[in-house]
Amino acid sequence: MKKKTRLLSLIALTAIVAVGLLAGAGFAQNAKHARTAATSACLVTDIGGLNDKSFNHLAYVGLQAAQSKLGVTGRVIESKSGSDYIPNLLSCVQGGADITIGVGFLMADAINTVAAKFPDSKFAIIDFPQEFLASKPANTRGILFREQESGYLAGWLAVKELVSQKKPLVLGAVGGLKIPPVDHYIAGYIAGAKAANPKAKVLYGYSQNFVDQAKCKELALGQIAQGAQVEFAVAGQCGLGALDAAKEKGGWGIGVDADQLFLGSHMLTSAIKKVDVGVFRTIKQVKGGTFKGYGNTTFSVRAGGAGIGAISPKVPKDIVAGEKLLEKKIKNGSIKSIPTTVP
Amino acid sequence: MGPDAPVVLELAGITKRFPGIIANDHVDFDLRAHEVHALLGENGAGKSTLMNILYGLYRPDEGEIRINGKLAHFTSSKDAIEAGIGMVHQHFMLIPVMTVAENIVLAVEPTRAGVLFDVGAAADRVREIAEQFKFTIDPYARIQNLSVGQQQRVEILKALYRKADILILDEPTAVLTPQEARELFGILQRLKAEGMSIIFISHKLNEALEIADRITVLRRGVKIDTIPREGATEASLARMMVGRDVLLTVEKTPGVPGKPLLEVAGLEVFDDRGLEVVKGVSLTVHAGEIVGLAGIDGNGQEELIDALTGLRKAHAGSIRIAGEESSGDSAREMLETGVGHIPVDRQRRGLVLDFSLAENLALRDFRHAPNSRLGWLFPNRLVARARKLLKEFDVRGGVPQTRAGMLSGGNQQKVVLAREIDRDPKVLVAGQPTRGLDVGAIEFVHRRLLSERDEGRAILLVSLELDEILSLSDRILVIYEGRIVGEFPPTVSEEELGLAMTGGGRGSGEEAA
Amino acid sequence: MTEAPTPAPPPLPEAGTDAAPVNFVERYGLLQRSGGVATALITASLAFLIGGLVVLATGHNPLSAYREIFNGTGLNWLFPWVNGTDRTFAAMNLQQTLLKATPLMLTGLAVAFAFRCGMFNIGGQGQYTVGTIVGVWVGSSWAGIPGPAHIVLAIVLASLAGAFFAGVAGLLKATVGAHEVISTIMLNWVAFYVGSYAFGLGGPLQNSTNVSVPISNDIATNAHLYVFWGDPILQGLHIGFFIAIGALVAYWVVLNRTTLGYEVRAVGFNAEAARYGGINVARSYVTAMAISGLFAGLAGAIDILGWQFRVGQLDVQASNIGFTGIAVALLGRNTAVGVFFSALLFGGLINGTSGRHLSADVFPPQLAGNLTLIIQGLIILFIGADVLVLYLWQRAKRLRAGKTPGAVEVGT
After folding, report:
1. Residue B345: inside a domain, yes or no?
2. N or C: which end of chain B has fewer CB within 10 A?
3. Domain match, B92 and B156 both
């Protein structure tokens, strides 16, 4: 037994060492991401990962668009935990990226650190105002969105639809964490609903989670039990649970960030923020030499960076037309100062 | 039956080697029709190995097996079962929550009939077999509600149900009370009369002499001889087993009792279910005295031992150790006061089987110098001390670093004994100290207990073995249903003791105190 | 002997040695005794092999994937022929690997210590979280006190908080018999929600200047652990690594050289025998759980003081250091040396499979991270299954040599 054990461990050890040597020997020929004359952009996701079907995914879509339309070299790195942020950003900078984009407010500190350390490189961060970065690095730009405008449109549309269906004017919204982008959406949603009909009532809550669908579903079911006819899910993957609850109970669902109408016939529309547009335009600025650090670019409905997605074909034409009109009013500034905080 | 009965089973030149040891060295063995053939040997003599080979669990390195003259090759127990061999292991292979009939039938066709078998028919068949051999067993009783003896009968029924005509019983009496053992012997006689051939594995000489027609003795893997029962004596068998003369009953000089070291008065103890199982026990053990506590198992002995050693809180009464009031003390306090304890179950309580011998030997006093100081343990000192104790107590098969689980039962018990005696206790509570040991080890333990008595310790010997009680004790108390029902001198007859143990004695609680 | 009504005696299982192990801890104990280091190596090798097959199945070359992973761990730094910028990158990668291995060693110890006392501590995650909460609270308060004192204070209080938190589970087991698996899982959620609340908007530990972000205050700069290798700004390797090594040594010493460790091991192997030996089993449960929690709390503290410097609400929710610690302990067989190497393996694996090392032409970025999870999952699966592997192995051997599985006595 002893002998056998030793033999087997020896074999296993040899195998491991062999693989190791092989890998090590190959290192020299492992071409690092070669620098080319083309503009290069590097995207670092937060811990949500590329498959979040939300803003990390959309940022990647924007990068891919830039690759195909602008001919830039693109690279994307997923972060698996908080300790990945700095090494990932570093990897972008050392790989020679002309612009390094961090996705999400979670990356703020890491961007702040790395941007301060490499003043000659360019950085951008999505969903975080540049002036809130501790060292306010001059080579960094914040990419922000007016989620409240998207929420406003969605809330207005939902109430109009309920009116036409002669249903009680009760809306639900399920947020993930109570963070600014989430609250922007919900605040706009409430304002839009009230604008459509002052009697409209909005129930909202936070699941404290962006991942666990069961938590959002539970919250949504509670709101539906209190009469909510529409569920606005503002919680990433977790939010899919809220939409599921709406489907089960015969209510409407409203998606978030990306166009989620494909989820089924219970979907009314989606309040979207076009992170892809934000990323694409930022890269375009870098390529065109117009990128400036220090400050924020805010993408609004007017700038084509916010709005709502496709609308359910079940919605009457006149309401859809009314929504288009409302969009115009937001664009031309006749509707302004939509609240960004939830009461 | 007789020398001319046909041979139904023959093992010829069986050799089985394990790394570093030859478990069976060219062993020949044969079994005739209608006989009970005892296979006798000390622990580690190779009895179980031989039977596991016969039952298809091991494959022999050399030698052959013949069933009714035909060469047999067993690759698994299934082959052996098909050849008509049934085995009752020491540890029963029964499912506690299922009924007798279900267990018996499941064992035969575990896969094919698993879902669809006919319980009614099975129960009828079980009842039929049981009646044939005059068993009393309810086919619909659940195993968990049966006594150990009854469970063993289920195991035998299982073999009979599978139409076995050769039955192997591996140390069948080890788990039985004397009464159950007696009933088992009755069953075996009936089985024999009905045409079964039985191999009876044991290390108990008296059982072999009582039940067997022929006796084969193994020693260290070698067959010593096969002899008929007629003419064999315990002494002659013991000599064959151990290889030297063995004193089956130790010679004992009368004890010289000194001052009382263990005084128990009006002790009441509850069991785990909250029932009062020790009902006002009073007893005294003096220095230099062995007091035997006889009784049928389950009459409160275990709870009494637990209470005396601080492992269970007494409900009422007092315990004085060397004059010091100790009732309510924890196990550790009892240890410190000077109570040694040889537990009934050495593997579950007496030893940490995964610890080394050195660590086990320190189990009771690892907190004290020189084993440790201010919480620091000194493993080297543990080892040094272990080396000394292993030598003194003649523990074989291990060095201080050996895992306790690697030792044979007898040597494990020596380790327990060494540990308890080395602490120099005033009072030693010994619970069935020779349970499961073979004659050589029993002799050692008995001698040692007597010499410790002569050192001036007070020893309370709790045992189910009357022989042991009678040969070691200076006084004998009998416990029945939680009460001391009689006190006897060591010259008392087994019959009288037996009567008292079943509650029919002359004595009453009062006169025992 | 007289005929008597026979009271049914309790069954007397003579051999504890060959009785089938009933619960996970016992099964695992059996494995530990019989497998040695071979099973751990085989387990890891098999997991890598099958992970490679998975890579192959996706149409990529497993060898180049593993080569990139290996270089990603920075272990090529050990090869003398790697030089120039490659060496710089390798050093940085190795720093990150060790940075990740550091808390894993500690959460691995947290699981291992409880295991040695016969308990399964699933609560390493919660204890780690409590450690981070207290660590960041102490570290970001009292900016005035001198650095070393601040560090010691933060580490000690965070470790004690972890100890207390785990001790609750131990206490519940000791007093009312609540199973530690259940209670530690529930305590994980307590920590999760306490953390979510504390760092959430409006929470007591939320950033005082930046009120719109659910993140804690930064800890004082002079309370950062000294970075001894790499750039202190860019997450170099801090001296917490040596604290973890020290904890490994302490673990070994406590278990093998103190009466406390003796008691813990005795209880872990056989609680009844320990009780018989005068050991207070209930107290051992509490102590062992508390020490377990101490290790996990320490992990939280040194992560905070070493590189994280602040905690976000999402960090609390997304962290799985404590859970990975379970795998570390299992693969490391609950020994100090084993935990060290398996923490290195897991740290290397997590770091090496990061998307920044796998170039898109070798492995698509969407799949890269999942490869870590696949290999981790496989390792855990094989750890669970290697009892089976062992069984089959011994069974095969028995047929050749004639030995029963698990039997330790030869014949009777």
Report:
1. no
2. N
3. yes
Question: Which of B424, B453, B469 is the endpoint of a domain?
Answer: B424
> What is the mean pLDDT of the segment spanning A286-300?
91
Q: What domains appear along chain A, each with residue ranges and CATH number?
A: 40-145+276-299 (3.40.50.2300), 147-273+313-331 (3.40.50.2300)
Which helix H or strand E contains A87, and what residues bound it?
A: helix A85-94
CA atoms within 13 A on the CB side of C346: 33
Say how many Å lie between the first and final Cα of chain B, rounded: 53
Q: Residue C22 above 50 pLDDT?
A: no
Clarify whether residues B45 and B158 are in a common domain: yes
**C-alpha to C-alpha distance for B183 and B189, rounded to whole angstroms:** 10
Same domain, B164 and B21: yes
ipTM: 0.80
For residues B84 and B149, state if they share a domain. Answer: yes
A partners (3+ CB pairs within 8 A) are C
Q: Do C369 and A76 touch (CB under 8 A)?
A: no
**Domain-embedded: residue B343:** no
* Distance (Å) from the alpha carbon of B155 to chain C's nearest alpha carbon: 14
Which residues form the domain of B320? Answer: 257-338+426-513
C319: left (phi over 0), alpha (psi -120 to 50) or beta: beta
Helix axis angle, C62-73 to C85-116, nearest 10°: 90
Q: What does the pLDDT look like over B141-165, one tens digit per residue?
A: 888 888 778 888 888 888 888 888 9
In-domain check, residue B460: yes
CA distance to partner chain B, nearest, from residue C27 (Å): 13
pLDDT digits (tens, 9 = 90+) for B363-397: 998 998 889 999 999 999 999 999 999 999 988 87
Do residues B382 and B340 make contact, with C-beta atoms less than 8 angstroms apart?
no
Please, what are the domains in chain C? 24-390 (1.10.3470)
> How many separate domains does chain B show?
3
pLDDT at position C412 over 80: no
The mean pLDDT value for C346-352 works out to 88
C213 with A132: Cβ contact below 8 A: yes
Q: In the numeric block, which tokens belong to residue C376?
A: 């981790």
Q: Is B370 found in the same domain as B435?
A: no
CATH no. for residue B73?
Answer: 3.40.50.300
Distance CA A223, CA A234 (A): 14
Q: Report yes or no: B465 at the C interface, CB cutoff 8 Å.
A: no
Residue A9 has a pLDDT of: 53
**B59 is a domain residue:** yes
Q: Which residues of chain B are within 8 Å of residue C279 when distances are taken between CB atoms?
A: 332
Interface test with B, best of C2, C260, C283, C398 (most B CBs within 10 A): C2
Average pLDDT over residues C176-192: 94
Using an 8 Å Cβ cutoff, are B87 and B170 in contact?
yes
Say yes or no: B244 contacts chain C, CB-CB below 8 A.
no
Listed by number, the residues of chain B in 348-367 with a beta carbon closer than 8 Å to a beta carbon of chain C are: 348-355, 359, 362-364, 366-367
The reported pTM is 0.78
Q: Per-residue pLDDT for C13 more than 60?
A: no
C277-317 pLDDT, tens digit per residue, is 999 999 999 999 999 999 999 999 999 999 999 898 888 88
Q: In what order do the strands lie in the sheet with A73-77?
A: A73-77, A40-44, A99-103, A122-126, A140-145, A295-299
Domain boundary among B209, B242, B275: B242
Would you tell me which residues 120-149 of chain B have a C-beta closer than 8 angstroms to some C-beta of chain C?
146-149
pLDDT tens digits along C320-347: 899 999 989 988 889 999 999 999 989 9
Judgement on whether residues B313 and B201 belong to the same structural domain of the protein: no
pLDDT digits (tens, 9 = 90+) for B257-278: 899 999 999 999 998 888 899 9
Beta strand residue intervals within A49-98, DSSP E: 73-77
Q: Mean pLDDT over residues C39-47, rounded?
A: 77
Same-domain status, B18 and B56: yes
Q: Are B201 and B170 in contact (CB under 8 A)?
A: yes
Q: How far B132 CA sits from the closest chain C CA (Å)?
A: 23
Q: Is B372 on the interface with C (CB under 8 A)?
A: yes
Residue C20 has pLDDT above 80, yes or no: no
